[in-house]
Amino acid sequence: MLCASPLANCAAKHDSLPHKAAFAAPTYTLDTSFPKPSGISFNTVSWVERDPRTRLIYILQRSQPPVSAWATDGTLVSKWSTQTLGDPHSISFHPDARGVTQVWITDMAPPLLAGQGYGHCLKEFTISGNGIGNIGTCGENSQGTGLNPVQFDEVTDIAWDATGHLLVSDGDLNGLNNRVLTLDPNGKVLASWSAPGDKPGSGPGQFDLPHAVLVDQCSRVWVADALNHRVQVIGTNGKYHGELSSFGSLGIYALAFGTSFQFPPEVVLFVGASPTTGGGTGTVSLFVVPMNCAHLDITNLTPFATFNVPIPTSTSMTLLHSLTVDPATWDVYLTVLGGNLPPQKWVATWPAGQRPDSH
Fold first, then answer.
1. Which of 115, 128, 187, 353 pairs with 108 at a CA distance of 20 to 30 A?
2. Domain limits of the chain?
3. Cα angle at 214 between 356 and 13, to 5 degrees?
4. How many whole angstroms separate alpha carbon 72 and alpha carbon 254?
5. Closest by alpha carbon to 331, among 343, 321, 342, 346?
6. pTM above the 0.90 mark?
């Protein structure tokens, strides 16, 4: 059965479930009651992430408050008042050596008049918003391509492998870099994947705006290779394992793992795609990904479900920018970047008796 109880012993990234051979396609409906009125004004909402420990939904925006936490019913639980973020891009969670959850934010590029200390670095915080440290030099003019010491430019996202190494996607639109780096916890670069000179590339291990990154239980790195219109899959050892490329001309900006199954081992991957010119209609596609770690290559995967996300126009470019998933309910939380647009919750429903956890 689904790991739905708040007291259940669930894994940090995926909940373990029995397998049902046939996957029914859920239907998704926008929950217009999420988020509930709270006094918070949303402006340039960049990222959404679920804290696997508390199951709260964290919203990251490029305005005040930059971070807020919400219950799944849309009730505001907490918010940060930090002034130490310039142009935050993504938010993620990882336990420290003591097992205490810390929050990591990619502070991408500073706004026009940002001061010293903003932008082009990774920032670590406590769960309540107190700064702990950073990787890379933070500052208005600090962007770069260096590896020793590492320096980022418009850094986009972070994930962790089983050994505690960081996988970092580095390079947004018109940035200096189009690369994915492996770092040790002290920020030392252990590997770098990119086309020569960190330029945009379309071959294996090359990227054109790497926007989001995940690591699965088989030590495969999943990269939203936005302007190559694909999800690229690479082992943490650098070996190319394939790609998902059934998205047409849409840019691939968002990735999240959802429900997982034990027999056979599989996980549901959610992919958010968007027109690269802004506005229009985005899509969220659901794939069943085999988790047999003896057979790592990814071939011939097609989505078993897809739903459309209307993207409102705004005074700035609007994109389906990020998403996260509640593995117990399959509900999807997503952000549309651009203007004063709130985060969204899309609720999954199935025909009677066809939900994958039914027996």
1. 128
2. 27-349
3. 50
4. 20
5. 346
6. yes
